[in-house]
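Q: My labmate handed me this sequence with no annotations at all. I'd like to see what the chain might look like in three dimensions before we decide whether it's worth expressing. Could you predict it?
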Amino acid sequence: MKGLRDVWADTLVALAKDDPRIVVLDGDLANSTKADKFAAAHPDRFLEMGIAEQNMVGVAVGMAALGFVPWLSSFAVFFTHRAVDPIRMLVAQTNANVKIGAAYSGLMTGFTGKTHQDVEDLAIMRAMPQMTVLAPADQYECAAMIRWASDYNGPVYLRLTRDGSADVFGSDYQFAISELRLLRSGRHALLVSTGPQSVRCLEAANELAKQQIEVGVLHVPSIKPLNVAALLEACSAYDLIFTVEEHSIIGGLGGLVAEILSENSPRRVIRYGIEDKWGESAPNDFLLDKYGLSALQVSQRIAKAFKKK
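A: Here is what I predict for the chain of 309 residues:
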């Protein structure tokens, strides 16, 4: 298990050795996002932009126009809220080749305070035309996504958690855009998740199996674009779908799945996530339990739903 922020930095350090186009622009958070690793390895291609995220986005667009591959480094909340206008106007609308390394995403940044927790970012970014939105489950998928994004010509939003999660893939993992990953087969229901929450869903499914409740786990690495046909096929064998995400239930993965199924193959969808509430300062395990997203809480909620059924 390796923290995704470390994976992000280490992968870019390695890629930049062979690709002189790669640069990193940081918003005064290099020691937190681990961009300081890139600064130490490639000081001539690291730009410290200070607490000026809007300006940082503008500079990155200019560098992309000159042929560079700029990666932006900051907390997710500063991209999707403070700098959302220049990202919308300068990056997405022009299809600029800018990559957004959105660190400290989701609920588990409690020690930075609820002001820094961003559980609305997927809803914001997936609604933005021409923006690719990715959420890796573990270190291997994260590294593969970074390699893919660095080669891809266009804007990418990469959702990075502060800490790591248990590995579900191996070092031979190959990322393919919009491909879905079935982590576990089942027959009673299907759990659809993204990011490290997919790992917790896999643990929840293993716990449910002890109660003779067999649920499948489908991991969605690419929120946008999404392979609609693959999602419909994965859900076709189930009458009951649970979406589980470390994000608001409004507009995120749950909303996306419900939209697609309601239009193409109606069936019951139950959304688990942050229920229209702000986060709070607390340790990760406490927050996951409180918001019903730990592996144990997910398994208990699903077991309860089956008893009602």
